[in-house]
């Protein structure tokens, strides 16, 4: 029997299917549940929004898979939160770097455009009033 640790009070069936890599996207949960048998505590279940709590058992007879849902300990929750915080920190850094790169790129394009406009003005013939 496989175990799946939840870090909140509950997890939905669709989210668990995605996080356990049974399906690739959350949108595939509805189709998966419609075409495969899933037993929730011994009862057939096909609602992707079904809330799963500590102590619940999921069975997938077609795959020979059984998952026991367990609640995380306080240490596991703290470790998980630290991982989420680090992930958020890295995402913020990447976002800032991307924004800085975009600003630099825009400045370079603007400078190139200004240079091009300057040379266009230099090479055009001067126009004198009354001259044809």
Order of helices and strands: EEHHEEEEEH
* The CATH superfamily title of the largest domain: RNA-binding S4 domain
Q: Which secondary-structure class do the elements indicate?
A: alpha+beta
Major β-sheet strand ordering: 1-7-6-3-4
Percent helix, as a range, is 40-55%
Overall morphology = elongated
Protein name: S4 domain-containing protein YaaA
Organism: Pseudolactococcus laudensis
Region (Disordered): 103-132
GO molecular function: RNA binding
Structure description:
Helices cover 48% and strands 18% of the residues. The strands form two sheets. It has a five-stranded mixed β-sheet, with no helix packed on it. A two-stranded antiparallel sheet has the order 2-5. The longest helix is centred in the last third of the chain and has 50 residues, at 74-123. The chain is elongated, with a radius of gyration of 29 Å. The model has no long low-confidence stretch (mean pLDDT 87). With 132 residues, the chain is α+β, with helices and mostly antiparallel strands. It has helices at 13-19, 29-35, 74-123; strands spanning 2-6, 11-12, 39-40, 43-44, 51-52, 57-60, 65-71. A hairpin with a 4-residue loop joins strand 6 and strand 7. The chain folds into two domains: 2-72, RNA-binding S4 domain (Structural Genomics Hypothetical 15.5 Kd Protein In mrcA-pckA Intergenic Region, Chain A), CATH 3.10.290; 73-117. It comes from Pseudolactococcus laudensis. Keywords: RNA-binding. GO terms for molecular function: RNA binding. Pfam families: S4_2 (PF13275). Residues 103-132 are annotated as: Disordered.
């Amino acid at each position: 029997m496989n175990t799946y640790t939840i870090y909140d009070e509950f997890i939905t069936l669709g989210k668990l299917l995605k996080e356990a890599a049974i399906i690739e996207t959350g949108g595939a949960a509805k189709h998966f549940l419609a075409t495969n048998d899933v037993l929730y505590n011994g009862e057939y279940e096909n609602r992707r929004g079904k809330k799963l709590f500590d102590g619940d058992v999921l069975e997938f007879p077609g795959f020979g898979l059984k998952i026991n849902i367990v609640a995380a300990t306080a240490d596991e929750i703290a470790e998980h939160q630290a991982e989420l915080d680090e992930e958020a920190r890295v995402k913020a850094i990447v976002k800032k770097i991307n924004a800085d790169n975009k600003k630099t790129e825009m400045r370079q394009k603007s400078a190139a455009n200004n240079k091009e406009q300057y040379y266009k003005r230099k090479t055009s013939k001067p126009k004198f009033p009354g001259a044809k």
